[in-house]
Amino acid sequence: MPDWIAVCDVDVIDLEDVIRFDHGGKTYAVYRSPDGTPFATDGLCTHEKVHLADGLVMDDTIECPKHNGRFNYRTGAALRAPVCVNLSTYPARIADGRIEIQI
Amino acid sequence: MTVAFTGESHKRDYSLTGEDTRHAKEIGLANAEWYHSEVPRKVMKELMQRSDGPAIRDTLLWFALLAGSAWGGIAFWGTWWCVPFWIVYGVMYGSVCDSRWHECGHGTAFRTGWMNDVVYQIASFMVVRNPVSWRWSHARHHTDTIIVGRDPEVACKRPPNLFRLLMAYAGVIDMVDSVKILARNSVGILSADEKDYIPESEWPKAIFAARVHMAIYLLTLIAAIGFRSWIPIMLIGAPRIYGCWHMLMTGLIQHCGLAENVTDHRLNSRTVYMNPISQWIYWNMNYHVEHHMFPMVPYHALPKLHALIKHDLPEPNASILDAYREAIPAVLRQARDPNYYFRKPLPPTARPYKEDLVHA
Ligand code: FES
Fold first, then answer.
1. What is the pTM of this model?
2. How far out from the chain centre does Cα B288 lie?
3. Which of A5, A45, B25, B242 could form a disulfide with A64 if both were Cys (CB 3.0 to 4.6 A apart)?
């Protein structure tokens, strides 16, 4: 069973924004949606290995900073070329004022 | 003031499957880490914000100018009065299409996705580019900007073909080449380069798009013959020839005469201050270093981005003419010495060029 890992205090991530989180030799992108719900995906774009945390969160999509490919960060679905391969997603929650992800 | 850099010369292979491709991959020039000026995340987030307003305004104006100039061209057909209307129509069709294609291809012009897609499809047709293949080719251009053997969009190859560069302004060669590509795609053939940068899953879409474009050209020809009139051709297709001069004028100064095989856009791209009309036609792509460093910043925010990072960039060219004064002698010299390039001095406030992988 994967562990719940603390990422940061909840207010470290703005609403409708994303941060990079490195853990156990892997990199993740951790989001807060416009209503404050946390989400987590793989940190690197599936097109080329670019950190999604430098991209733009709009509603429930993350736009990659390199070629503007888009994913739905709730489901990981690839939405816009040049990304074709979906992102892996991970459960995320808020516990005691901190965002945790299950990895 | 610019500084010339030269070195040992070798014959370059700009194909995407040749010796230079292998070399670029081997030494880490392909998919490399590029230099970025520092911009705090909060500020960058502001700059990246999308909105529909500016692009709707510009697109309505564009369509109005297209419609108005087409009306004048047709109404005064057969008299000299039609000429200024066709000149305007030509630029609106054959040059504006390029910047709209570009910005909507990035998906940054409008906030609303379908608006980007609709304008992208229209502009791709006007600029005679396969809307599927060119999306991928442009992605590669951003990954490996002016990396020999990796970038499919190098306009000024070395040594330059001066005749072709000059003829580009007449529009005919590029139009013939572009139609040939569409025709080839429409019968189901993709080149080795296209197969290199377009994922296989997208090949059928590229072929379908080429067929749609070719069908519209065929209908235009049938209409011209049926009506015994040049007007259908003046409206569709031909403006890409007689109106592309502005696209060439602005497009050729993006990278020509600057470095190849570097991983710092300040060395291979040019920011040029322009008159407001050219800047509108070009949708602010005169801030070209800025666009390459931060492609997710929409066109309407590029002037702000420029103001923020200009201390870290070479002095922009003062005008289109100034850019040509720099680029033409450089390109002429590259005809003799293909390793020559302009290296613009950086202001004292800038961080040094990133040159860990330089093979200019
Ligand atoms: S690297 Fe993310 S879209 Fe290309």
1. 0.91
2. 10
3. A45
C-alpha B77 to ligand 1 mean position (Å): 48
- Of residues B152, B144, B156, the one with CA closest to residue B333: B156
Is residue B277 within 8 Å of B351, Cβ to Cβ? no
Tell me how far apart the alpha carbons of residues B6 and B9 are, in angstroms, rounded to a whole number. Answer: 9
Number of A–B residue contacts, CB under 8 Å: 47
Task: Measure A1 CA to nearest chain B CA, in Å.
Answer: 35
- How close is the Cα of B86 to the center of ligand 1, in Å? 40
Q: How many CA atoms lie within 13 A of B116 on its CB side?
A: 21
Could you read off the pLDDT of A26-78 as tens digits, one per residue? Answer: 999 999 999 999 999 999 999 998 999 999 999 999 999 999 999 999 999 99
Check if the beta carbon of residue B316 is closer than 8 Å to that of residue B272.
yes
Angle between helices B53-75 and B82-94 (to 10 degrees): 150
Residue B329 in contact with partner chain A when CB distance is under 8 A: no
Q: What is the ipTM of this complex?
A: 0.86
A22 beta partners: A27
Q: Which domains does chain A have, with CATH numbers?
A: 4-102 (2.102.10.10)
Q: How many CB atoms lie within 10 A of CB B239?
A: 26
> What is the number of other CB atoms lying within 10 angstroms of the CB of residue B144?
25
* Cα separation values, B281 from B28, B71, B99, B225, Å: 37, 20, 7, 33
Q: What is the pLDDT of residues B226-256, one digit of tens each?
A: 999 999 999 999 999 999 999 999 999 999 9
**Is A81 within 8 Å of B135 when comparing Cβ atoms?**
yes
- Which residue of chain A is at minimal alpha-carbon distance from B105? A68
| CA–CA dist B271, B310 (Å, integer) | 10
Q: Does A16 touch chain B (CB under 8 A)?
A: no
